[in-house]
Amino acid sequence: MRGLPNVILTPHIGGSTEEAQQDIGEFVAGKLADYLASGATSLSVNLPEIALGVTSGTHRLAHLHRNVPGVLASINRVLAEHGVNVEGQLLRTREEFGYVLTDIVPEYSEDVLAELRAMPVTIRLRTLGSP
Question: What is the pTM of this model?
Fold first, then answer.
């Protein structure tokens, strides 16, 4: 095609317009806001992609951990031992990471969080909302 007299080839420049830059900024800001508000990691490149619909009247735990067998069972064991009811839960893994979003009833003790944080596989536990 390069030799044709009526063809002009240029690199893709679609992302170089002011409008495209504005859209990219809004898109990225929206993804960060989703993560902060609900723990969603949709379209993440370094964490498992996960989005759990928001359930009213619950409190959300976002648990990032090393991807080894039995983590979900261990999380649920801690919750069950403390009488915490799970209203919704979703797990995704990617390579060395696992990420669980768990919606629970708002009434629970700080001991639950302490035990989840103390698990050897826990990288980070984030709570969304207030107990």
Answer: 0.82
